[in-house]
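Hey, does this match?
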Amino acid sequence: MGELIRQWRERRRLSQLQLSIQADVSTRHLSFVETGRSRPSRDMVLHLAEELDLPLRERNHLLLAAGYAPVYAETALESPKMAAVRGAVSQILRGHEPYPAVVVDRAWNMVDANAAVALFTGEVAAELMAPPVNVLRVSLHPDGMAPRILNLGEWRGHLLARLRRQVALTGDADLGALHDELAAYPGARSGPAPEAPGPGDLAVPLRVAHEGAELTFISTVATFGTPLDVTVAELAIESFLPADRHTADVLRRWQAGRPQQAAPH
């Protein structure tokens, strides 16, 4: 457990002194914890995990390494206990129509989506849409959305930077492997870097070709506040809102002319 504490402290770029001040514990005690000379209480493990801003999944791992039982449940989304969560997610997805919205787990696999997401995925290769559908892979793969994304380099840079931050936060090796896979796809140098916005830019847009025209979106991400379950903590809802009136009009017309059917899962 002490080695894990040290690794997370270094990942957060904190010295022992900085963490001890932040956590209000002595540097000596923290040093003893990291070297295994002192076995911390469960409350101390949770306290250090809080100060290190660890994801709930990693807090459970830390507790197990210290010899304690995990305190955060990981409940399947299909469980009856999660009915309220499923209901909230469905309400949010429906409320965003006719604009696309998708729910993903920690690995960026699609958990649910509203019907408008089909506007993005209609031309994606069937094998990329086989479960589990990874939305980042669908976005950047040459057989996915990539050929239709008009600012592919900019959008690709945004997604990869976002994924790098997630890897740094969680230390998840699978996410690191996903980043390396996506970074090897074509499109690295097409378009401006998101770190150099143009005059008046407010957010990195997603520009998609659709029936000979351009649709422009800005995205928002929502998570559940103060989650106490690992599954709930790792859910994210990404919504794509029209950045101009033309895009909004196209989406409304597209939905009006589309047969009513269940949202993709």
Summary: The longest strand covers residues 213-222. Strands lie at 101-104, 110-113, 206-210, 213-222, 236-242. The chain has two domains: 2-65, 80-256. Residues 166 and 262 are 31 Å apart (CA to CA).
